[in-house]
Amino acid sequence: MDRRKFVKISAIGSAAIVLDPSKEDKVKLNNHSFTKGNSTVISTWKPGLEANKFAWKILSKNGKSIDAVEAGVRVIESDANNKSVGIGGLPDKNGIVTLDACIMDHNYNCGSVAFLQDIEHPISVARKVMEDTPHVMLCGKGALDFAIEKGFSKTNLLTPEAENDWKKWKELQTEKLPEINHENHDTIGMLAIDEDGDLSGACTTSGWAYKLHGRVGDSPIIGAGLYVDNEIGAACATGLGEAIIKISGSHLVVELMRQGLKPNEACYEAVQRIKKTNKNLKDLQVGFLALNKKGEHAGHSMYAGFNYALKNSKTDKLIDTKYEMEW
Ligand code: GLY
Q: Which atom from ligand 1 is nearest to the alpha carbon of 239?
């Protein structure tokens, strides 16, 4: 970003904060104010509309954002028709469904699971990691053993439809390596702010369809697939996890907001960083979502077609984001 433009944005941001103590319903917290009665939830892609309904049940009753985001994304994890999250997710190259998820609250508490098999709700296991262990991340068999110990039941995640798709894919492969295409990265990421102005986020996926066995994407990595800083805002990512990890995408978006950028500007800049750090942009879809302390939100993607669901007391709708390129 142009340095002069950045300094200007920062200066405008600071001035707005300094000049804005007037309204009684604004609460000042570490220089970043929030407005009471401003509960909002946003989540990636069209299935987010359904997920938001469940999150809103909690937010609208003065519930906590951490409970809202967990409840919201669980709906999609249970949807067998969704081929990129939880049950029904497309498997890896070997025909095995492996799940990644993470969750983060307003106190920098976070939990994550990666390469988890046979469990319907990785997001809830991630929350248990956050709340019941001194760790942030568990993976593979360790995560599964932990989930069983915590009372989660084993479930077959591979639906007949997903298995059929995998068999068809296998027949078409000459090298048996995963293909990149824009349809197989639609993680659900959800960000929410509650009545107390506290932010939380959740992110869950079955990852890149037909990936190499053992591959982990951005979604369980705090700072890549999700980041929450309650002083500033929250961000999540969807799309090609490898590209998102390389730039710590969600953390970058939050840090850009800390420097004074609006959510749309921060998401735009993160996509520019992806452009700068990847030579081959063909089919490299990524999308970022951001929600700041004031409840302002936006997204931006590399390719056309990314959208996000928004719900608050005034509205319930799907918003198409701005993008860099047509397919
Ligand atoms: N963004 C999801 C993944 O790459 O696994």
A: 1
